[in-house]
Amino acid sequence: MIYENRLSSVSRCANTRFFSFKMCLVTYSSLVFMQQNIEEALTKANSSLKDVVRVRYILPDAKQFEEIWPITRQFLGDIKPAATMISAGLADDKMKIEIEVTAFKSNP
C-alpha cells in the first residue's frame, strides 16, 4: 500500500483454487478475501471504498474476467471508478488475479 496525503494505492493478489476440474478459476471466497484486505488497507490509510477512483484487474487469463465481473461490481456497489482489465503474467504462477485500487480523498 502506498499513500501520501490524499492519494492511496492498494494492490492485492489471490492464489489459485479449483472451481471445476477442467479450469482453474478465481473463486468467490478468494475475491471476497481480497476485497476485505483492500477495505482494511484503505481504512489504515484513512480512506474507504467511497474514495476509490480507479481499479485495475490483472489476470493471466482474460476469459476469467467475465466470470468475476459481477462479484467485483457487487463489491463496489454504487461506486463507479475508472476500471481496466489487463491480461498479463503475474509474479507467481499460483496467482490468478491482482486487484489494484487508487483512492483519492477530496477532504484530507
Task: Give the SSE layout.
Blueprint: E1 2-4, E2 7-15, E3 17-18, E4 24-25, H1 28-44, E5 52-59, H2 65-76, E6 82-87, E7 95-104
Parallel strand pairs: 5-6
Antiparallel strand pairs: 1-2, 2-7, 3-4, 5-7
Helix pairs in contact: 1-2
Task: Report on this structure.
This protein is α+β, with helices and mostly antiparallel strands and 108 residues long. It has one domain (2-104): RutC-like (60s Ribosomal Protein L30, Chain: A, 2-Layer Sandwich). Helices cover 27% and strands 37% of the residues. The chain contains two helices and seven strands; from the N terminus they run E-E-E-E-H-E-H-E-E. The protein has helices at 28-44, 65-76; strands at 2-4, 7-15, 17-18, 24-25, 52-59, 82-87, 95-104. It has a five-stranded mixed sheet with strand order 1-2-7-5-6, covered by helices on one side. It has a two-stranded antiparallel ribbon with strand order 3-4. Strand 3 and strand 4 form a beta hairpin. The longest helix has 17 residues, at 28-44. InterPro entries: RutC-like_sf, YjgF/YER057c/UK114.
Using only C-alpha atoms, the radius of gyration works out to 14 Å
Number of helices: 2
Q: How much helix is in the residues?
A: 25-40%
The CATH level-2 architecture is identified as 2-Layer Sandwich
Strand/helix succession: EEEEHEHEE
Q: Biggest sheet, strands in spatial order?
A: 1-2-7-5-6
Largest sheet composition: 5 strands, mixed
Number of strands: 7
